[in-house]
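[Structure tokenization] protein backbone as discrete codes
[Encoding] learned vocabulary of local backbone shapes
[Protein] chain in single-letter code, fold in tokens
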Amino acid sequence: MRAVCCFPLDRQRSQVQRCASALQRLHGELANVYWRKEMQALAAHLKGLGLPEGEVSRQAMAFTTAVQIELQRLFAAADEHSDEGVG
């Protein structure tokens, strides 16, 4: 039996940044639809690699957390830039 080892999704910085940037621009139902599609594609990819359901769930949760942290960073950076013009 062959083992599959993939780089953890939450450490794939370009993917995390891509999703966070998209979610920063989208709102409401558009953001929900985007996120559902991203997570479905992510799960399908991992399942296609042969990862067990538990690992797929763990990877999805870790990726979600990484995207949330990146969103917080983006919003904080945007606040800093908006504060620069004040004074």
